[in-house]
Amino acid sequence: MKLVVGLGNPGPEYARTRHNVGFEVVDSLARRFVDPSRASARARFHGLVLEAEIASEMVLLIKPTTFMNKSGRSVADAISFYKLDAARDVMVVADDIDLPCGTIRVRADGGTGGHNGLADILGALGSAQWSRCRIGIDPPGIIPQADYVLGRFTAEQQPLASQGIDLACEALECWCREGLAATMNRFNRSRVTNNA
Description:
The protein has helices spanning about 20-35, 70-80, 85-90, 115-125, 145-150, 155-180, 180-185, and strands at about 1-5, 40-45, 45-55, 55-65, 90-95, 105, 130-135. Helix 1 crosses helix 6 and helix 2 (about 70-80) runs parallel beside helix 4 (about 115-125). The protein is about 35% helix and about 20% strand.
């Protein structure tokens, strides 16, 4: 079993904001890989949970409902319950202000890059040895960072963000099918373009 955790904030006021691209990836994976007869999310592990089958692998899709800054509890509880190896079985999907909009980067481990959700997971797990798929949302420029990440994509950014979400879904399918090294080799070179 594998665990894919999409980070975001619950509630309609946060829907489709830059900070919620992790939620959008989980929603997109659910549309692609969850049996429609089992498509109702259950409340478990302080999150909304769906079971998917991706590349013959059982995958638990989680959107923590604890708000971004407390995401670690959800991840830690699911890992503990299923006795997963975080380094091998866990992928966390989050936004990244240091990457161009829609670009993705997959890593086996690393720091938090100032991302509060990743920082809380690191604290809850006590280790940085878990994979991340970061989706670029562009730097905030002169806009205060908190306002920027909680804002919605501009008309120019939207097609890039949509491409990045699709690319992340393809990368996660590759991760389930071929493993982390193949996924990094293939998808860390990918670039999105604004053809609008």
